């Protein structure tokens, strides 16, 4: 498709919100090496998309301007690079447009390691963030994806159902299966899990995945979404604006073995009295305060821990999630769909932060 142009949406500087997005005509990219070229059918947005535009990940991401945002996509293969043998033209796939080094995932499995190892892990993770390339490109008609981070999309899984999975679904999966130690086949001792902001992108997947394991799930959300979260499978649901909800107290008096923390602005002092003896708070959006607590708990040999989570994508885990959707064991909830020509509406909605499920952009 060399020489052809496509419609894309990009920004050329930090800031600006929805108004900073520009509709442009740019060359269709080519599939090189181990890449595949996709004609996009759906792209899902994530909070990291607007945070990158705002400059919250500078100077690491985006690596250069102008930048086409969007990393979670579903589409049809229209071209394969010379190093690709597992996909062919016409295949339907789900992909995450990221060049992060997925091999590092093996280095962060052991959350029980010593203090100095954990501090080294923290620095190593930041090195990956600094040098990894969230390539973006999802807000366009075509995009290139690495074969290792692309998986087949069966006909039972719609484009939107697939495109919702990469960042949000993989984050929920990693948080539950690694630091929380939940076995999604239902084996092992029962664990009491708290999921904050359970009606959002990561949260709504986390509730469903947790219930595949041997868990009791308490969840927090806004009043309008209580029934929605209960229908996802949560055993107890708290309105976060009520006194008990703000205090994160389980209605049945349970102490949490792990918290999948998808919200912001909750101090450690609120979590600590609600944790079991060896309870962990897995923070999916860690900030400076989170890392300070993480280090303090390690240095004082506290049994209760805060674990900052940075999701490392792996194709095998994405394939696992797609198959769960195919089997009817996991669902992607669509908050809203927007045409690429109206992407500003989707961008404003993801910035607002009150989506129920996932926000999508399509042709």
Automatic annotation (TrEMBL):
Coiled-coil residue spans: none
TM stretches of this protein: none
Occurrences of domain Enoyl reductase (ER) (ranges): 16-361
A molecular function GO annotation: oxidoreductase activity
Organism domain of life: Eukaryota
InterPro entries found in the cross-reference section: ADH-like_N (IPR013154), Chloroplast_QOR (IPR052733), ER (IPR020843), GroES-like_sf (IPR011032), NAD(P)-bd_dom_sf (IPR036291)
Record protein name field: Enoyl reductase (ER) domain-containing protein
Organism: Salix brachista
